[in-house]
Amino acid sequence: MKFSPVFLYFNLEVSAGFIESEWGANVPLSVIWSQFQLPEDEFESTYGVRKPALDDEIIVTCRSGGRSTVAQKILRELG
């Protein structure tokens, strides 16, 4: 049985180590707009996690919070 989280976690750190999990991935802020517009299958093949649905809870993190704030605004604009 595959784990199905109630949230998906995305780290915005460019230099961070790669997250290997079924519920999170590293997506640099510089590409977050374009990557979250990818078709579901392409997003999953690129990041190894399913693309979040519009009603999924998403957690974004970075070292100091600046990139996370910008990413939240971008993701809200995308729906």
Oligomeric state of the chains present here: single chain
SS-based class = alpha/beta
| Topology, number of strands | 3
Number of alpha- plus pi-helical segments: 3
Averaged pLDDT:
79
Strand content: 15-25%
- Radius of gyration over alpha carbons? 12 Å
Features:
79 residues, alpha/beta, three-stranded parallel sheet, globular
Care to describe what's here?
The protein is an alpha/beta fold and 79 residues long. 32% of the residues lie in helices and 16% in strands. Strands 2-1-3 form a three-stranded parallel sheet. The model has no long low-confidence stretch (mean pLDDT 79).
Map the helices and strands:
Layout: E1 7-11, E2 24-26, H1 32-35, H2 40-47, E3 57-61, H3 66-78
Short description:
This protein is α/β, with parallel strands linked by helices.
